[in-house]
TrEMBL record, chain A:
InterPro entries: Cyt_c_III_dom (IPR020942), Multihaem_cyt_sf (IPR036280). SUPFAM superfamilies: Multiheme cytochromes (SSF48695). Residues 1-27 form the signal peptide. It comes from the Bacteria. It comes from Desulfobulbus propionicus (strain ATCC 33891 / DSM 2032 / VKM B-1956 / 1pr3). Residues 34-96 form the Class III cytochrome C domain. This is Class III cytochrome C domain-containing protein. Keywords: Electron transport, Heme, Iron, Metal-binding, Signal, Transport. The keyword Zinc does not apply. One of its GO terms (molecular function) is metal ion binding. The keyword Signal applies. The lineage of its organism: Bacteria, Pseudomonadati, Thermodesulfobacteriota, Desulfobulbia, Desulfobulbales.
Automatic annotation (TrEMBL), chain B:
This is nitrate reductase (cytochrome). Catalytic subunit of the periplasmic nitrate reductase complex NapAB. Receives electrons from NapB and catalyzes the reduction of nitrate to nitrite. It is an enzyme of class 1 (oxidoreductase). Belongs to the prokaryotic molybdopterin-containing oxidoreductase family. NasA/NapA/NarB subfamily. It comes from Desulfobulbus propionicus (strain ATCC 33891 / DSM 2032 / VKM B-1956 / 1pr3). Its EC number is 1.9.6.1.
Length: 121, 796
């Protein structure tokens, strides 16, 4: 069921791209990054929706050390006004500052610490 | 709660999910990220929130804070932060900050802005008139485990030495008083023997009455890491509610609220029956006690006492999922591991039998010798960042003076009077009103003026509507010092705007006896002032109005000192050098100069600077590790229990029976209600509710209902449910969750909205010894009212 929904999304975006409908949607997102939501919807916790919308990703996070330790989505990705799909290394630095000096400087953290399981490759 | 359908929402998000799958980069707002660029300064301090004592650095650029990050070398958090620690800088420049003194003569009037001069004069006038007319016991100070130690110390000095009242209390009465009582009666001294260093050496964790994952997240990380890296380490989680903490448990013991005394006694019985107790340790260091008079008992009498608590009997009493074999298993793990650390919090403390529950955990450690060695400790988790340092250690409760001195002992009062240079006999001999009696006295009209500092009792007291009646009365003059409006400032006559964390300098002492310094890094907004300045200036006016030079004497050492650094430093120096000298919390080595050089801070006792710089005492009472164990040594034994409360210098094992909570379910009110905290919010949410990331994670309280109960009551997720007790009612959305045990519901207490304020429903009965209320257990009715409704978060 979850797997089918995932494939459905992929097909949907392919369709959107093919028909030129992607551009306006992406333009709307580029202002903040997350699809625009009503104020009411913004009061739903990230993981509540993402357990359904991105279930594999959610499970990966939930089972990871971040998930067990309750490091939540918004700590890396921000909230709506500050949303970023791809956090910067400086976001990781809030907790992992010491690794900024120990780890290679020429690549972002997640190249080795793959989201959302964060296991070192 | 969703107002649009899930289907609509999912359609909208499809494109975004797909975008990230095909690797598209979307523009990013960098304004709120932690940057390591030039022109930035990082200022070291302690987190403003819970009792872990994470060390943080505040990033400031051009006088404006922009981020927080952890300090990697700090022995509390090793660089990690939870979301509250990451985001609390957003309170600093918040538009809702109180910036000017506000006053109204009657509580129905609107507030008017006034000058500091007028405000301090009014505060002094109202307190001094009350004292003149009715004596010192007509006024009170109600402080907080979130005040800096310097603030608590100075206020209590003014109240006791100046206004001659021991009506000095604080909100740790509501959370830690039972832990204090437990430590004092079991070990003879307050606060843990060990500390966090034991976590990485432990082989067994017994987590009871604590949702560590949410209430002490950065400590939980250390336990989680220990467990994940060492799978043979055992984690036992005992809680009527399955929580996020349970995820790492090898065994989760789910029992009916209030039956844990049976569980703990049953574990003791197994330990004795299977000869898992440490006879040598018991022989050298322990005695047995029973009853109010602390009558001596023998090992055999203790064994007889716990004999009825067979695992079978206890499993029956506890109900839930516990079996007799579970009890045997966890008792064996506890006793036989190379090092066992117990951790607990409000599930044990906020109980009618709170002190007893604490004693029974300590019993297990004493019986098995799971103390003193690396990886073994009986570690009460402190909820607030400075309940230990400020309130418990520096005289912030009605019955204790600074330096763990009981106020009832004349010798102790005289020591304090001499240190303060005030006449002997000045400090009243009787303890003041404890918190619940204090607010009862406000209700009765016998307390005429209260100073409420950095806390919101209008929301945080149990059965809060009852006490709000008194707070609302014009018979009681109320001063609130705070940074934001709260449910309590709604009852104030005078609101004084205060400097926030990093806007002033001072010390916090955390769970593991570690005092840590935060220096002022940015300016407070508007006319907000640090509390130490406010208290000093108030006291000078009190001295004039009451024509009492002794009041002036209380603040004379601090007169004229610059308020950002010199004033708090002078207060800290007086407290540590004069009041902790020779006491079990000796902090003479922990000067600002020493603290300022450290990544973290100093665990007392630390009588010298040299010792303090290394970090202080990792394990109390151990020769070679604790300088006082050496200096107070009476014999050749390696452990010396010199704590002030046990003249026999022994650890006490207590004979404590199972006893019922104050109110249990019955035919009319058939559910248990338990309350607690969740990770994204802090207390009454005046800070965290103003941070969008945190508010959106949990915008309103809900009622957690077990799926079986929900099915019986026809309650679906999101339905509006009435939670009603004999005292009050809430209307909350339902969260159907395999969390609370069947027959129990759970609600968090952060919500300021009147219909979701769960303390209207809780019961205000309290432990007769510690006076700490039983927030954790009362009886309620649960009834579905309607389907989901759109809800709005609320802040005063």
């Amino acid at each position: 069921m979850k797997h089918n929904a995932h494939r459905l999304f992929r097909s949907l975006v392919a369709l959107l791209l093919a028909t030129g409908w992607a551009a306006p949607i992406l333009a709307a997102q580029s202002a903040g990054g997350h699809p625009p939501l009503s104020e009411q919807d913004q009061y739903i916790a990230c993981d509540q929706c993402h357990a359904e919308t991105t279930p594999e990703l959610h499970k990966e996070w939930f089972d990871s050390r971040h998930g067990v330790a309750m490091v939540k989505c918004y700590q890396c990705h921000g909230t709506f006004e500050t949303f970023r799909v791809t956090p910067q290394p400086q976001d990781c630095a809030a907790c992992h500052e010491n690794m900024m000096h120990k780890c290679p400087q020429d690549k972002p953290c997640w190249q080795c610490h793959v989201p959302h399981s964060f296991n070192k490759k | 709660m969703m107002a649009q359908t899930r289907r609509d929402f999912i359609k909208k998000t499809a494109a975004l999910s797909a975008a990230s799958l095909v690797g598209m980069q979307l523009p990013v707002d960098v304004n709120t990220m932690a940057r390591a660029a030039e022109d930035e300064a990082w200022h070291r301090g302690t987190c403003r929130l819970c009792g872990v004592g994470c060390r943080v650095e505040l990033g400031v650029k051009n006088g404006v804070p922009f981020a927080l990050r952890g300090v990697a070398d700090a022995r509390t958090n090793y660089g990690y932060l939870c979301m509250k620690g990451m985001h609390f800088w957003k309170c600093m420049g918040h538009k809702d900050r109180l910036t000017k003194p506000l006053y109204r003569e009657r509580k129905a009037d609107p507030f008017k802005e006034i000058s500091w001069d007028k405000a301090l004069d009014i505060a002094a006038e109202r307190f001094s008139s009350a004292v003149k007319a009715h004596g010192g016991n007509a006024v009170a100070y109600y402080g907080s485990g979130q005040c800096l130690t310097e603030e608590t110390y100075l206020f209590q000095k003014i109240m006791r030495g100046g206004l001659k009242t021991n009506n000095v209390e604080g909100n740790p009465r509501l959370c830690m008083a039972s832990a204090v009582g437990g430590y004092m009666t079991s070990f003879g001294a307050d606060e843990p023997i060990g500390g966090y260093a034991d976590l990485e050496k432990a082989h067994c964790f017994f987590i009871i009455g604590s949702n560590t994952a949410e209430a002490h997240p950065v400590l939980f990380r250390r336990i989680m890491r220990r467990k994940l890296d060492n799978p043979e380490v055992k984690v036992i989680n005992a809680d009527p509610r399955v929580s996020q903490t349970s995820r790492i448990a090898d065994k989760h013991l789910q029992f009916k609220p209030g039956t844990d005394l049976s569980l703990l006694n049953a574990m003791a019985k197994v330990i004795i029956d299977e000869k898992l107790h440490d006879q040598q340790f018991l022989g050298n260091y322990a005695v047995f006690k029973q009853g109010k008079e602390a009558k001596a008992a023998s090992f055999d009498e203790f064994a007889q006492f716990v004999a009825p608590y067979t695992p079978e009997a206890a499993a029956k009493t506890c109900g839930g999922t516990i079996t007799a074999d579970d009890i045997r298993q966890v008792a064996r793990w506890f006793a036989t591991s190379k090092g066992t650390v117990s951790l607990w919090c409000m599930g044990i403390n906020q109980r009618k039998q709170g002190v007893w529950a604490n004693n029974l955990i300590h019993n297990l450690h004493i019986l098995t010798g799971q103390l003193m060695k690396e990886g073994a400790d009986s570690l009460s988790l402190t909820g607030q960042p400075n309940a230990c340092g400020g309130v418990r250690e520096a005289g912030g409760l009605c019955h204790i003076l600074p330096g763990h001195r009981p106020v009832e002992k004349e010798k102790m009062r005289n020591q304090v009077e001499e240190a303060w240079g005030i006449p002997l006999g000045r400090i009243p001999a009787e303890p003041g009103l404890h918190t619940m009696d204090l607010f009862t006295a406000v209700n009765k009209g016998t307390v005429k003026a209260v100073w409420i500092n950095c806390t919101s009792p209008a929301q945080s007291l149990p059965n809060c509507d009852l006490y709000n009646k008194g707070l609302a009365s014009d018979d009681c003059f109320i001063v609130c010092t705070d940074i934001f409006k709260t449910r309590t400032t709604e009852y104030a006559n005078l609101i004084l705007p205060t400097a926030f964390h990093f806007e002033k300098t001072g010390v916090y002492g955390c769970t593991e006896r570690r005092s840590q310094l935060t220096r002022k890094a940015i300016k407070a907004p508007g006319e907000a002032k640090p509390e130490v300045w406010i208290a000093r200036e108030w006291a000078k006016r009190l001295a004039t109005k009451l024509n009492d030079p002794v009041i002036a004497q209380c603040v004379k050492p601090f007169d004229g000192l610059e308020e950002d650094f010199a004033l708090p430093q002078a207060i800290w120096d007086e407290y540590t050098q004069k009041l902790t000298k020779g006491r079990d919390n000796d902090l003479r080595g922990a000067s600002y100069a020493v603290l300022g050089r450290m990544a973290d801070g100093v665990q007392w006792p630390a009588p010298t600077e040299e010792f303090a710089l290394k970090g202080g005492t990792v394990k109390k009472f151990v020769k070679g590790l604790d300088p006082m164990a050496d200096s107070e040594s009476k014999n050749d034994l390696p452990y010396q229990f010199y704590g002030p409360a046990h003249e026999d210098r022994k650890l006490w094992i207590w004979l404590r029976p199972q006893a019922e909570p104050s109110e249990v379910p019955d035919a009319d009110y058939p559910f248990y209600l338990s309350t607690g905290r969740i990770i994204d919010h802090w207390h009454t949410m005046s800070m965290t509710g103003r941070i969008p990331e945190l508010l959106r994670a949990n915008p309103y309280a809900y009622v957690e209902i077990n799926p079986k109960d929900a099915a019986k009551l026809g309650i679906k997720p999101g339905d509006m449910v009435e939670v009603r007790s004999r005292r009050g009612v809430n209307l909350l959305p339902a969260k159907v969750y395999e969390g609370p045990i069947e027959g129990m519901v759970f609600v968090y207490w952060h919500d300021q909205e009147q219909t979701r304020m769960i303390n209207k429903v809780t019961k205000d009965d309290y432990d007769p010894a510690s006076k700490e209320p039983e927030f954790k257990i009362c009886a309620v009715q649960i009834q579905r009212v309607s389907g989901p409704r759109p809800l709005t978060p609320f802040l005063v």
